[in-house]
Amino acid sequence: MGNPVQSFTGGDFELAGNSERAQMDHTYTSQSYGRDAFLRFKANKGAVFGLVIIIIISFFAAFGPMMNEHTYKSINIKHKSLPPRIEGLENFFIFNGVANGVNAYEQKGLTDVYYIFGTDTLGRDLWTRTWEGTRISLYIAVIAVAVDMIIGMCYGLVSGYFGRSVDNVMQRFIEILSGIPNLVIVTLLIVVLKPGFVTVTLALMITGWIGMSRVARAQILKLKEQEFVLASRTLGAGHFRIIFKDILPNIFGQIIIMSMFSVPSAIFTEAFLAFIGLGIPQPMASLGSLISESFKSMTIYPYMIVAPVFVLALLMLSFNLLADGLRDALDPKMKES
Amino acid sequence: MRNYVLKRLGLAVVTLLVILLALFLMLELMPGSPFNDEKITQAQRAVLDAKYGLDQPVFNRFVHYIKAMLSGDFGVSYVIQKNMPISAMLEARLPVSIQIGFQAVLLGTAIGLLLGIVAALKHNSFADSLTTFISVIGVSFPSYVFALALSYFLGWKLKWFPLLYSSAAPFVSTVLPTIALSMFTIATVARFTRSEMIEVLSSEYIRLSESKGVGSARLIIVHALRNALIPIITVLAPLVVALMIGSLVIEQIFAIPGIGSLLVTAIQINDYNVIIAVSFLYSIMFIAIMLAVDILYGVIDPRIRLAKGEKHG
C-alpha cells in the first residue's frame, strides 16, 4: 500500500484456473436405490476387503475349532509352549517350529506333531483357542447390532415421533444416562454379577444404544412433518403403522450405518474387559483374555500373542472399513471428502 | 445463555446424584462382605458392622454417604491397605494418572492436528494416505496392543525405555505409556481435522481471503484452522472416555501406580469403598468435562444455545 503505482509485466500474472475446483456433471441412467448402493459399495475397495475378511474370519470361527482333535480346554503338558509349525511349511521362517533359536519340537522329540499357531504354557492348542475367542467377539458384534436395533432404534423413534412431553422426559433420561461413564457402569455390573458372558452383554445393553437412539430421533424429526406421513394419517393409519411401516423404511440406511459403527466399539469393550481379567472366565477363551494370558509370558514366548492380536486387529479393522463403506454406499451425502 | 448454562448445570447435578445412588445401591446388592475371614464370629461381626456403620438403615447410610463424598471423605479401604483413608490413597495416585493422561492429550492433539492439517493441505498425496492409514490403525487397534508392541520392541528388544514405571524417573518411564495412550487421540483428531479442514478450505470466505492476498500461514492458522476446530470439540467426549478406559489397561501393563490400576485391583479383591471412590472420581471428571464441552460449544456456536439447549448431533 506504500507504493501506489507499480508497473506490471506479463510475467507477474498467472492463470489461477479452475481445473482443480471444477465440478463435473455426471448423467446417470436411472437405477434403483439398492442397485445404486450396491455399485457404490462394490467400487469401494476397503469396504469389499473388510467384508471378505469378516467372512473368512467368521468361517474359521465357525469351523476352525473342529479342524483338529484338540478342544479349547484340552491340556497336554508334554506339548506345552510349542511355537507355530505347519506341515509342509517347515522351511518357512515363521512356521518352522523354531523360537529363540531352538526347535522346541526336535528338542522334545515331537517330530510328527504340528500346531499351526503353537500351544500355550499349559499345552493347549492356540489355533482352537483363538477361533473359540473369535466366536465370542462375533457374538458380541451380533449382540451390539441387536441392542442397537431393538432398544436404540425404538427408543429414538418413539421419542422423536411423539415429541412434546414424551420426548422431553425420554431425552432427559438419556442425558442423565449418557452422563454416567460407561466404565463405571461396567465396573458396578462386574462387582454385582460375576464376570462373564452375561455381564458383558448386560453392560452393552445398558449403554450401547444411546448413540443409535439419537440418530433415529433426529431422522424421524425430519420426516414426521412430511406429506406422506400426513397422507397415511389421513387414511387412518395408527401410530405403530406410521412409525414402523411408513417412516422406518426411509431411515433404515442410517440405522444400518449406525449399528455397524457400534460393532467395533462393542468388540473393543469386551477385549478390554477380558484383558484386565474381568471378561470370560477360564478355561474359556476370548481374544482379549488370550492376549492378556500371553502378555504374561511375552518376553519368553512372543509368538503366543501374535495370533490373537492379529485376528482381533483384523476384525476391528474390517468392521471399521465395512462401516465406512456402508455409510458411503447407503448415504452418499454423508461421505467424508 | 444463562438459562442454557443453568440447565446444563442442573442436569449435571442430577446425573451426579443418580450415579451416587447407583454406586450405593449396587454395592448394597453385592454378594459377599468386606470381612471375608471365616474365623470371625457373629459377635465380632456385629462389632465390625457397628464400627463401620454397616448396621444402619440404607437411607441413613446413603444420606451420610453423600455428605461424606462431597466433603472428600471416601472412607477407609477395607482390604487393599487396611484402614488406610482412601482420600490419601487417591492423593498419592491421582497425580500420576493425570500426568500421563495430560501428556497423552497434549501429544495426541499436537500430532493429530499436524497430521490433519498436512493431509488437508496436500489432499490425495502421500501425507494424506499416511494420515488415513494412521487414523484407521489408531481406531482399529485397542490401546493395549500398542502398549504391548511398544514395550516389546522399544522396551525389551532395544532397551531404549524402561519396561515399568518408576517414580525415580517420572518422565522417561512414562514415554511409552503416553505414546500408547495417545494413539486413539491422534487418530480421531487427525481424522476430524482433515475432513473439517478440507471443507473449510473449499469455502467461499477462504477463497476470498486468498484472493485478497492473505499470506498462506496466516490463512491456514487464523482463517481456516479456527473455524475447523469448532466441530472438533464434539469429539472430546469419546476421547475422554477412551483415555479413561485406556488408562486402566495401560497402567496395568506398565505397572503405573495410578487410579486405573487401583480400580482394577479393587474390583479383583472386592474392596468396595475403593471401587466407589474411584468410580465417583471418574464420574466427576467425566461430568465436569462434558459440562465444560457443552458450555464451551454453546459459547462458540450461537446456533446451539438458540436451539433451546438442544444437544447437537
Write up what this structure looks like.
The complex is a heterodimer of chains A (337) and B (313). By secondary structure, chain A is mostly helical. Chain A has a domain at 54-64 and 128-335: MetI-like fold, CATH 1.10.3720. In chain A, 60% of the residues lie in helices and 1% in strands. Chain A is built from twelve helices and two strands. In chain A, strand 1 and strand 2 (102-103) form a beta hairpin. In chain A, helix 4 packs parallel to helix 12 and helix 9 crosses helix 10. The mean pLDDT of chain A is 78. Chain B is mainly α and 313 residues long. Chain B has two domains: 2-70, no CATH class; 93-312, MetI-like fold (Orthogonal Bundle), CATH 1.10.3720.10. Chain B has helices spanning 2-28, 42-51, 58-70, 86-121, 126-140, 143-157, 175-201, 204-212, 216-232, 236-253, 259-268, 272-300, 302-306. Residues 308-313 of chain B have low confidence and may be disordered. Classes of the chains: A mainly alpha (337), B mainly alpha (313). Chains A and B meet through helix 5, helix 6, helix 10 and helix 12 of A and helix 1, helix 5, helix 6, helix 7 and helix 10 of B.
